[in-house]
Write a structure and sequence with these properties.
The complex is a heterodimer of chains A (223) and B (461).
Chain A (H helix, E strand, L loop, with lengths): L1 E5 L3 H14 L2 E5 L2 H10 L4 E5 L1 E2 L2 E2 L4 H6 L5 E6 L4 H9 L4 E4 L4 H20 L1 E4 L2 E4 L4 E4 L2 E3 L3 H12 L4 E3 H8 L10 H15 L4 E6 L3 E6 L1
Chain B lengths: L7 H29 L2 H19 E3 L5 E3 L4 H11 L5 E5 L4 E4 L4 H9 L6 E8 L2 E9 L7 E5 L5 H11 L3 H39 L19 H43 L5 H28 L6 E4 H18 L3 E6 L4 E4 L1 H18 L5 E7 L3 E5 L7 H4 L20 H11 L3 E6 L5 E6 L11
Parallel strand pairs in B: 9-11
Antiparallel strand pairs in B: 1-2, 3-4, 3-7, 5-6, 6-7, 8-10, 11-12, 12-14, 13-14
Helix pairs in contact in B: 1-6, 2-5, 3-5, 7-8, 8-12, 9-10, 10-12
The chains are: A alpha/beta (223), B alpha+beta (461).
Chain lengths: 223, 461
């Protein structure tokens, strides 16, 4: 994994570099938007961490360049401006995730990993959560080295959950992922899918399990 | 109740009273002038008045007969008073017909017969018994000329005054003119009042709109009279100053936010290098608290410095999204979170602000409601969002002040900023709603965010 850090505060940049290198992969630091843009066009990065207040402008102005790159790196915006409108504008312009300053180091790592997981799923069609792996291209799931046999609907549920592993997937979103618009959804069908899926994961000795968040939805967590 | 001050009312009253006073004064002066005249003049006034009445009173009926018909209450009264006097006589003639009242003294008859028709007015004195009387002969210019000769009129002072008042009644015309003037002035005052009141009303309306938020609003000075333009201009300058102050505050907030948080981030990251785990834990916790104070202070400052944009929002959807975001950290605290909703609850409101309120309530519960197994968030059809925990709760006496900034609970476990509930309260005030802190059956804290009942009552219009 290769990471690009755009941060003009050297101390902060160096801490970020140490932290991300320990947890995710090699990191390069650039202090200005211009340098960062040049580096982005010359090398391939998997993750870009951008601060907003930079000497030559707002970090968000790098987002259009990032959007045009193929493959596109995952983007995480560090922001001291946590006004909801600032966050919305960051996400609207193509940032995948934002982390408000000051942040817990663990939170930054977790968010960076979550973004990368979503990306790896889109890019390679494959993602890993604990000993559970999911292959989007072949539409199959494995626990360790063993293939997990799952009916089509349950596989769709599992895909939606693993895409947002560690975070809650709301019921509505899950239903939308599993059924098309015309299908009549019985109130407890989703619950029975989940409960059968939960049983399969348990029986396969999976390290991940599905938690029910009452009234909200479900979440894939590590046991 | 005291009558509210008005410009038009006192001006109109002063005008009316002024005119009334002028009428009284002019009448009194006229009467006073009469009272100062000597007896001879008064007699003359009386005789002249009677002659005039008679001259005006003679006419011809349908048969062509010469008749005397005095009209008007005062005129009749004067004639009646004259006729009550035994010495009173008159002679009215048009040359062919004549009306005679009383006995015309022989000496006077001689004057009547001999005075030349070229003489139109002649005054004469004559003796009757021991008394001297004043007589008057008048010939008018009509065709045929009417001759009136009167004598023997003796009026008391009061009776003469009546005559005088009749004489001066045309002065009433001036009074009428005064009434017209008063009416015109009153209309003018009302018009001026409207001219003044309309722009003033606009300024007042604009002033009422001022909610302490910058919005570039200005009062139009179109149609404002030139006299009031300085007021409108001064008001607009004041509005501009408010906007500038808010702009400065907004910039300050953005800068402060950045300048405070970047060093805090560096501090937090460096703390991981501290070797002693006990010391590190304390420092990390203090830094987290500091960060939290910075965040909530800025949130509070920002909330008071910007107008919320209201749309129709679903409280259930906002709550669901807020909870979904907090589930991982709630679970890390060893708590469960449960959401209950009776379907969609649509209210006018600001989604980011309501979300912020809920974030604060959930973070509060995580921080203070130790021992909670299930944190329950409910959205009720009565437009209430309720967050209930199973923690120690807040004593009834302290609940009210917990809604003020920088007030923290008394429990030793408190590590919050003391601003979470203040932010919630501010957000609910902006929604015309309210925050109620209560006690759950199991002793925990129940926070109810109540939104206004109907759209009409709310700020959304």
């Amino acid at each position: 994994m290769r990471i690009l850090i755009v941060e003009d505060d050297r101390e902060l940049a160096s801490s970020l570099k140490t932290m991300l290198e320990a947890a995710i992969g090699v990191a390069d630091v650039f202090e200005t938007l211009a340098d960062a843009e040049a580096a982005l066009l010359a090398f391939k990065f998997d993750l870009v961490v951008i601060d907003r207040n930079l000497p030559d402008g707002d970090g968000l102005s790098l987002l259009p360049t990032l959007r045009q790159l193929r493959p596109r790196p995952a983007t995480l915006v560090l922001t001291a401006l946590d006004d909801p409108t600032d966050i919305v504008s960051a996400l609207d312009k193509g940032a995948d995730e934002y982390v408000g300053k000051p942040f817990e180091p663990m939170e930054l790592i977790a968010r960076a990993r979550a973004v990368l997981r979503r990306y790896s799923l889109d890019e390679t069609g494959c993602t890993q959560f604990g000993n559970l792996s999911f292959d989007l291209i072949n539409r199959s799931a494995m626990i360790g080295a063993n293939a997990l046999s799952v009916p089509r609907r349950e596989l769709a549920v599992l895909e939606a959950l693993i895409r947002r592993a560690g975070r809650v997937v709301q019921r509505d979103n899950l239903e939308a992922a599993v059924y098309n618009i015309d299908e009549e959804i019985e109130s407890n069908v989703l619950d029975s899918h989940v409960s059968r899926l939960r049983k399969r994961l348990r029986e396969g000795n999976c390290s991940a399990t599905i938690r029910t968040i009452r009234g909200i939805g479900y979440m894939l967590v590590q046991e | 109740m005291r009558r509210p001050n008005s410009i038009a009312f006192p001006v109109a009253i002063v005008l009316i009273l002024g005119m009334a006073l002028m009428m009284v004064i002019s009448t009194v002066l006229t009467v006073a002038v009469f009272l100062l005249t000597d007896g001879q003049s008064r007699k003359k006034i009386a005789v002249e008045s009677v002659v005039e009445l008679l001259q005006d009173g003679v006419s011809y009926d349908h048969t062509g007969k010469f008749v005397l018909e005095v009209e008007g209450v005062i005129a009749e009264k004067i004639i009646r008073l004259s006729e009550e006097q035994s010495e009173f006589w008159y002679f009215v003639s048009d040359g062919t017909q004549a009306i005679i009242h009383g006995a015309v003294p022989a000496s006077v008859q001689h004057i009547i017969d001999t005075t030349s028709p070229q003489v139109f007015s002649s005054e004469f004195s004559y003796m009757a018994g021991q008394q001297q009387f004043l007589g008057l002969r008048k010939l008018n210019a009509e065709d045929p000329p009417k001759l009136v000769v009167v004598g023997g009129v003796t009026f008391s002072n009061a009776e003469t005054l009546l005559v005088v008042l009749r004489e001066i009644w045309p002065q009433g015309l001036y009074h009428l003119l005064g009434i017209v003037l008063v009416a015109t002035a009153t209309i003018a005052v009302v018009a001026v009042k409207r001219t003044i009141a309309t722009p003033v009303r606009r300024v007042v309306d604009s002033a009422e709109q001022i909610d302490g938020l910058p919005n570039g609003r200005r009062i139009s000075d179109r149609d404002t009279p030139i006299e009031l333009k300085p007021m409108v201009a001064a008001f607009n300058t004041a509005l501009g100053c408010i906007d500038n102050a808010f702009e400065a505050q907004r910039n300050f907030l953005a800068n402060a936010s950045h300048e405070l948080r970047t060093p805090l981030t560096k501090l937090r990251l460096k703390l991981d290098l501290v070797q002693d785990p006990d010391v590190r834990e304390i420092l990390v916790r203090d830094t987290a608290r500091l960060a939290s104070i910075v965040t909530t202070s800025l949130q509070l400052a920002r909330l008071s410095g910007q107008a919320l944009t209201f749309t129709m929002v679903d409280l259930a959807a906002i709550a669901r999204a807020a909870i979904a975001e907090h589930v991982p950290s709630v679970m890390k605290q060893g708590m469960d979170i449960e959401f209950k909703a009776e379907g969609r609850v649509i209210v006018p409101g600001s989604e980011p602000a309501i979300r912020l309120a809920l974030d604060n309530l959930i973070i509060n519960a995580m921080r203070h409601a130790r021992g909670t197994e299930v944190l329950v968030v409910e959205v009720l059809q009565a437009r209430i969002v309720r967050v209930s925990d199973e923690g120690p709760g807040i004593p009834a006496a302290e609940r009210e002040k917990m809604l003020r900034p920088f007030v923290r609970g008394n429990t030793s476990a408190s590590e919050g900023t003391g601003m979470g509930l203040a932010i919630v309260a501010q957000i609910m005030t902006a929604h015309n709603g309210s925050v109620a802190l209560g006690e759950a059956a199991n002793g925990g804290l129940v926070v109810d965010l109540a939104f206004p009942k109907t759209a009409k009552e709310s700020a959304f219009s």
